[in-house]
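TL;DR need structure tokens for one chain.
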Amino acid sequence: MTPHLCNPPQMLFLLRTLFWILALHFFPRSRATLQLEIEALRHQVAVLHRNNPTRPRLNAWDRSLWVLLRSTLPSWKQALVIVKPETVVGWHRKGFRLLWRFKCRQKKAGRPLIPLETRELIRKISRENPNWGVPRIQGELKMLGIKVSDATVRKYRVRVAKPSSQSWKTFLANHSKEIRAVDFFVLPTFRFKLLFCFVVLSHDRRKILHTAVTTHPTAQWTAQQVTEAFPWDTAPTYLLRDNDKIYGEVYRKRLDSMGIQDKKTALRSPWQNPYVERVIGSIRRECFNHIIPINERHARQVLKEYAIYYNESRTHLSLNKDSPEGRRKQTPYNGNVISIPVLGGLHHLYERHAA
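>> reply
TL;DR here they are.
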């Protein structure tokens, strides 16, 4: 017989004992006490019958029964024969220690586990966007209402071989809301023709305000693009540009008529116009390094689509993991996470949608 299991006779003794303990509140106390003493004696006789009478062995249920009798039966010592009263007191203290050891048990050490859904989502984002680093993935998760640390993203993301991106510093911190920057970059087409792409950027939110593509850039065309980028009373105080000869007399006169101060960088110093240089680098790395434009119209369409994704969805480290136009933060209550392909699947936008 296993000592920790309660056989039917033991269960019967235990049930009768519990009944007469409850009967102390309803029956005459002397009668209930007498019945408890009888049950105690019966239990001891049953123990002697099932074990060696010279050395009886009590299991856990027998000890629990006597601990219960000690707490409720005043004359439990007189009814006890097979063991000493000190032994029952020791059982009671041992049970008390086990109870508090269970209550004060040490919980599992270490940080809590990340949910499986979050781990799979990190792997999915890093797999679908191999050019994204840890801050970009963490910013995308933040927009989805999932708060994780850089170490967690670094641990669960899929490792891909790619060159490390260099950090950059700003040289203008004050009055960024009044500063805009312009620049050109060259783009080869499918037929090896060169296209000139024009980008206008806002310094405060890193927002792309205007893009244009042409095969023959002139000062007149550039001035017209500035007019389209700043309609009505949206003209900034300063407009930063490099020393390209395309910014000729017509361009400077147009800026003077709009009340914009023309600010040019030093010769061979692209670091003095870092924001727009950074955006052009992002456009190349994230878009045109993977897409070959067929003609001017195709390049204009792709650049416009990327500018929309850049302004509305792409998270930025300098904007506290937010997009230039600001994204609405979502919580897990908004539904499951779905991926929306951008630029034919080159990038993906992640949002929560109810099922």
